[in-house]
Design brief:
It is a single chain. This protein is an alpha/beta fold. It contains 16 helices and twelve strands. Helix 2 runs parallel beside helix 15, helix 4 runs parallel beside helix 5 and helix 13 packs parallel to helix 14. The longest helix is centred in the C-terminal third of the chain and has 20 residues. The mean pLDDT is 96. The structure holds 1,3-dihydroxyacetonephosphate (13P) and iron/sulfur cluster. 1,3-dihydroxyacetonephosphate binds next to loops.
Length: 325
């Protein structure tokens, strides 16, 4: 059965206890919910595992479930499918894409790669499976610096698709990787002016940022890291106030882990107070319930693409294990 437009209104009785129903379906179907930190708080609360891109890939690889419901965006669900071709991978909303992945179309990237025949291709996991298939090793914000440093200094490297993360790695490692000109719409719209004002209002606050932010923003950060690294930093820090420069979903876990600390989401350069990823936020508990009930929308990929995209992901997982990540 294919779900029609308006199915949510028809299917969902407002009196339904979605937490109870979703937990029942998970058990009945041997399904797991893997969720990224940028999901809404209620989705994080019902997930079996919450993590950053590396953690989610590692969890997907070792999953023994029959069904993986991926509460994140399309490229993340693709990675889960590539690592589990025989499992059913569901995504609550197939339209949950990613501006960063969209900024790197495969045909143009293949031409760019052809212009640099002596370079190896290191690619941020936030890209489509077609781009992964053109890459030598995938990286995430958790392992990127270590993976880059595992290659000799003289090795020429193309880094795609995030120019901000690429510039940050170049600075940290002293490399000169050739960067693809892509970026994340969420991390690029933090307002420098509002950040400076916020710092003046909260001089005691530690500023922490995701490396997808622009260099001028990162210059203000006392700590830079992946979502998991930012969360761990706030748990361990003796400080009690943090200005957080990443998508606001992560604040749920920060607040849960440190209820007595204060987390201030840094504002974007528009009229919104918070910086939400519109793609991540397409997922809802209602859509998760329907997806588990009807086992769709299912993420489908050709065997040949799965095979070509798997090698660079496997290489990343192997290197991460070597680094103890
Ligand atoms: P990490 O959770 O791996 O830090 O990535 C952030 C992100 O932008 C995911 O879309
Ligand atoms: Fe893509 Fe940025 Fe949203 Fe992450 S936060 S899914 S990189 S648009």
């Amino acid at each position: 059965m294919l779900l029609e437009k308006g199915y949510l209104e028809k299917e969902i009785d407002p009196a339904l206890d979605l937490f109870k129903e979703i937990n029942y379906l998970k058990k009945k179907k041997n399904a797991v919910i893997l969720a990224h930190y940028y999901q809404d708080a209620d989705i994080q609360d019902i997930a079996d595992y919450i993590g950053d891109s590396l953690g989610l890939a590692q969890e997907a690889e070792k999953s023994t479930a029959d069904i993986i419901l991926f509460a994140g965006v399309h490229f993340m669900a693709e990675t889960a499918k590539i690592l589990n071709p025989s499992k059913k991978v569901l995504i609550p909303d197939l339209k949950a894409g990613c501006s960063l992945a969209d900024s790197c179309p495969a045909t143009e990237f293949a031409a760019f790669k052809a212009q640099h025949p002596h370079h190896i291709v290191l690619t941020y996991i936030n890209c489509t499976a077609d781009i992964k298939a053109l890459s030598d090793v995938i990286v995430t914000s958790t392992n990127a610096v270590q993976i880059v440093e595992s290659f000799p200094k003289e090795q020429a490297i193309i880094f795609a698709p995030d120019k901000n993360l690429g510039a940050y790695i170049n600075k940290k490692t002293g490399r000169n990787m050739v960067l693809w000109d892509g970026s994340c719409m969420v991390h690029e719209i933090f307002s420098l002016e509002k950040l400076v004002k916020l710092k003046l209002q909260h001089p005691e606050a530690k500023v922490i940022a995701h490396p997808e932010c622009e260099e001028a923003i990162l210059a203000h950060a006392e700590f830079i890291g992946s979502t998991t690294a930012l969360l761990n930093y706030t748990k361990k820090s003796a400080d009690s106030t943090f200005i957080v420069l990443t998508e606001t979903g992560i604040l749920h876990q920060m607040q849960k882990a440190s209820p007595h600390k204060t987390f201030i989401p840094a504002p974007p350069n528009n009229s919104c107070a918070c910086n939400d990823c519109p793609h991540m936020k397409l997922n809802t508990l209602e859509k998760i319930y329907i997806a588990l009930k009807y086992e769709q929308p299912e993420l489908l990929m050709s065997d040949s693409l799965i095979k070509r995209a798997k090698a660079p992901i496997a290489k990343m997982l192997e290197l991460s294990a070597q680094f103890g990540l």
